Automatic annotation (TrEMBL):
The lineage of its organism: Eukaryota, Viridiplantae, Streptophyta, Embryophyta, Tracheophyta. Residues 1-19 form the signal peptide. Keywords: Membrane, Signal, Transmembrane, Transmembrane helix. It comes from the Eukaryota. This is Uncharacterized protein. InterPro entries: Stress_up-reg_Nod19 (IPR011692). The keyword Membrane applies. The chain crosses the membrane at residues 402-425. Pfam families: SURNod19 (PF07712). It comes from Dovyalis caffra.
Length: 438
């Protein structure tokens, strides 16, 4: 208990680190701990916490870094507690408790993939910082509806795989594992979901443990020299269909989030390559300069590329697989994704441009519930060029960089699932938000 208290105090220490060159504005950094979640071997935590600790006021977010720790503050390796995803989103609260989700810039609708930050197993080795003078603007009083307060929620989805025979397999079929076949209102969720039932529990006798999401946020106070970025999450399953008023995952809503990869021997016995290539075309509603981009894939993923309409590469993002035993390097797990930080102004997307998203998986084995997401942050101007006066031709200048744990993560990737947005969805299914949250 004392250890925990000391840890809490240390964790909440606030520090002011680098200078923000444009303005002298200091980058602020603060580390928070989520509410505790408790897991026993084979069990799953799928929690949404509202009104989490988060920097307040009119600010620009610069990075967001998170990982699962135990009660002593130690990093927990993925083979003990598989971190399916965490994600952080924004809502406007109307007292006493009405909540209006305040999503990112697209492309899906409703609450689907509407988070600002979110990662899965790759969280420890994926860079998410936003270079100066850019940032994600938040807390702008002009954008918060009258009578509402801006707040943040955190969704955490973790699976305790201690004692599980097929640990990586178990992480793919979490839906049946914890019996999520109906939602809190008794409606079936995603009946088409084919996650295999996991029968791999082997009488492992480990005890229940407490975990926390430890997250570090960096930000600067807002000023006019900061250039805001728009946050887009592209989904390779997005068919482009949009059903007016629908926010749940259904065939009428183009974003299915997850898909399946058939084994190559099942689809083509003579297949040599055993690579599943999934491509789709997505129309960008607004244009701008790409400041940051990264893909999200699950185990089995071998990389993802976002192409412009003319075929130029906007970003290629490749999974980093662990090779060892320690947290951040777990053998066989995706422990990071490479990111793209193009020279601001060099990679431009035009409003209405049709991008192609390609997500590749190793199909030697069948995979269930995989994802092919691409996060892109777009600025309408750079310090030197504004979009309206910028030359129309498109340059290709893509930098691919993998950053280590020491690099602070920010926003980013997300790993979202039906479960992640589950508590939002059920409310929308009723045609509105519940006045009183559970
Ligand atoms: C899932 O449901 C089965 C059958 O009702 C039950 O035996 C099992 O304990 C449940 N598992 C979890 C994780 O709740
Ligand atoms: C913007 O201007 C700065 C300073 O003049 C220069 O160093 C930088 O290369 C320019 N960037 C671009 C994208 O032109
Ligand atoms: C993008 O694709 C749509 C649908 O095929 C088409 O109507 C539109 O003209 C395309 N946009 C551009 C910029 O070519
Ligand atoms: C796919 O996975 C199989 C089995 O793990 C492996 O032998 C093969 O090299 C992988 N192929 C690629 C392209 O990664
Ligand atoms: C919040 O959501 C409720 C219910 O959907 C709606 O009536 C209200 O207009 C929304 N408020 C704002 C500011 O959008």
């Amino acid at each position: 208990m004392i250890i925990l208290l000391v840890f809490l105090i240390l964790a909440l220490d606030i520090s002011y680190t680098q200078a923000f060159p444009e303005t002298g504005n200091k980058i602020k950094s603060r580390t928070f701990l989520s509410t505790e979640f408790v897991l026993g071997p084979g069990s799953v935590a799928s929690k949404t916490y509202y009104d989490i600790d988060f920097p307040r006021g009119h600010i620009a977010l610069k990075s967001f870094n998170a990982e699962v720790v135990d009660q002593a503050g130690n990093s927990v390796p993925l083979y003990e507690t598989y971190f399916h995803h965490w994600l952080v989103g924004k809502y406007h609260e109307h007292r006493p408790s009405g909540r209006n989700f305040s999503r990112n810039n697209g492309l899906c609708q409703g609450q689907i993939l509407g988070q600002y930050f979110g990662l899965g197993s790759e969280t420890r080795k994926t860079a998410t910082h936003i270079p100066d003078p850019f940032g994600i603007e938040t807390g702008n009083p002009a954008e918060i509806p009258e009578g509402y307060q801006e707040k943040w929620f955190l969704a955490v989805h973790a699976i305790d795989t201690r004692g599980v025979e097929d640990r990586l397999g178990c992480t793919e079929c979490w839906c049946d594992l914890y019996n999520v076949t109906i939602d809190e209102d008794g409606n079936p969720i995603r009946p088409e979901y084919k996650g295999d039932t996991v029968q791999s529990q082997t009488g492992f006798s480990g005890g229940r443990r407490s975990f926390y999401l430890r997250y570090m946020v960096k930000w600067v106070d807002w000023d006019s020299s900061i250039i805001p970025v728009k946050v887009f999450v592209l989904d390779v399953t997005d068919t482009g269909k949009r059903l007016h008023g629908s926010t749940g995952i259904s065939p009428e809503n183009g974003c299915q989030i997850e898909y399946e990869v058939e084994s190559c021997t099942a689809t083509d016995p003579a297949s040599q390559a055993c690579i599943d290539i999934k491509r789709n075309s997505l129309t960008m509603p607004t244009g701008g300069y790409v400041i940051y981009a990264v893909a999200h894939q699950h185990a089995g993923g071998i990389g993802s590329t976002l192409y412009g309409q003319d075929g130029r590469v906007i970003c290629t993002s490749i999974p980093i697989y662990g090779k060892g035993n320690e947290a951040g390097n777990e053998d066989g797990y995706i422990v990071g994704m490479s990111t793209c930080y193009p020279e601001p102004g060099s990679v431009k997307i035009i409003a209405g441009e049709n991008l192609t998203l390609e997500s590749n998986y190793n199909s030697t084995n069948k995979h269930i519930g995989v994802m092919g997401l691409f996060y892109i942050y777009i600025a309408e101007q750079t310090p030197n060029v504004t979009l309206t006066h910028a030359p129309v031709q498109i340059h290709e200048n893509m930098k691919l960089t993998a950053y280590g744990w020491s690099v602070v993560a920010f926003i980013g990737l997300a790993v979202t699932t039906a479960i992640a947005v589950y508590s939002w969805l059920k409310k929308r299914r009723e045609g509105g938000y519940k006045p009183v949250p559970k």
